[in-house]
Amino acid sequence: MRLGFIPNAFAILFDKIKDNIMIKITSKDNSLVKHITKLNKSAKYRRECEEFAAEGVRICIDALNSGAKISSLIVCEDILDKYSDVIERIKAVADNSYVFSKTLFREISETKSPQGIVCVIKPLDKHSLFDKMECNGKFIALDNIQDPSNMGTILRTAEAVGIDGVILSSDCCDIYSPKVVRGSMGAVFRLPYIIKDSISDFILEHKNITSYASVVDADAEKITHIGFECPCVVVIGNEGNGLKQSTIDVCNKKITIPMNGRAESLNASVAAAIIIWEMVK
Amino acid sequence: MRLGFIPNAFAILFDKIKDNIMIKITSKDNSLVKHITKLNKSAKYRRECEEFAAEGVRICIDALNSGAKISSLIVCEDILDKYSDVIERIKAVADNSYVFSKTLFREISETKSPQGIVCVIKPLDKHSLFDKMECNGKFIALDNIQDPSNMGTILRTAEAVGIDGVILSSDCCDIYSPKVVRGSMGAVFRLPYIIKDSISDFILEHKNITSYASVVDADAEKITHIGFECPCVVVIGNEGNGLKQSTIDVCNKKITIPMNGRAESLNASVAAAIIIWEMVK
After folding, report:
1. pTM listed for this prediction
2. ipTM score of the complex?
């Protein structure tokens, strides 16, 4: 018992030191405030900085648990007690930690009722993870998906049902936009993904992976008639215009959702969910 | 040819008369402005008036084509030419038609970029339609669904894949709230539905219909192992809390979505879509 006491004493001392280095910020002109506002707004800026902001208790815990590098933790002064456990855990790994006044926190928040916690995160490089799975996985490829809410929901569904990885075309909306990060419920931290200039490039470079172009076309093969054996990739197209012809042309097969009702009326993330479900069930 | 001329002349004259009876409104204090604003905001008021407002070109055409009774057509002055065909068709059946100034139209609009057309609609009574199908249909029952966007998407999906009808518990959000009407892409006009005080009541009154309670429970039967023969009903519960125990208790079977990934993470409308898909595919 006596032995246990010394590390505890050190821990308490260490906590005090760390408490001291939670820097309090109150000015709107602070460069961190401007940095986060810009991270929230601009995909270009996120790419330049190789950072993004994630807001909310659950999403920040997801970031922590995924091993992502947290460069800044920002906490609103009024939740220091409420979420003290979470704050302590994140503070222990974050490069820097800051306390914002309530008014200032509202400046960087993207939500109507802020939970009072934001992390600035450097995304993990998942390329090597992705490369390892290529011979034996089930993948989805998103070709020019534009709506961040759709992308968030698709990533969340893909992770939930057990898709191994995602390929994004570079003309998709940014995977680290606040809406995608929130809508994915943290799947952006866990799901292996790569970004390619075009999905056709990926397909042509990976001829061992059977590729399926999902289309709205009664003559295409029904998703219910396909085995989806590994390795395979299903390509999902833009919400309004569907898949590019150049992508369809390089795929091994065209597939479609057979319908009794008004098939054309499924929304993009529901259509994707049904296809993903058929791939892995 | 000569014979054709006379009706044409009448048609032109009739159009002129109708044009004249498109009443121009410019004052915020007009009772119609207040009526529509209240219809958009209050489910209680919608129930009292037995009316709701639908906004947008496509949704108003859907209302027209479904045969719903349109009590008022409201058009923004700047789209009179752009959508003249649609306006003429709706004006021909609407009890009253109005032209609003641009500023005033913004008062009644629920969207950031208004398309400039709103219909005030009396819903069709679909009870008789529903009763006829009871012996031979596939139904979904929504128990305490709270998010209008979820309900809209679920109704849209149900119609798209060919569900025959929907039972709503009276503690669901209102089916005629603007978000449900928009999110359903007009399915609210076409899909037969009834509202019951509780879903258990419906199940107990319809013992000929096999009832399935959808739950997150590894011991429940997998949706992939069920034939879903007619007549059947699948009950879908609240987004956060799932199904009420009292509803589960009266159902014939508990069913669940089997998952390889993080099952608990599916969003409500995606989980519903997968279940509905398995029912009818």
Report:
1. 0.84
2. 0.82
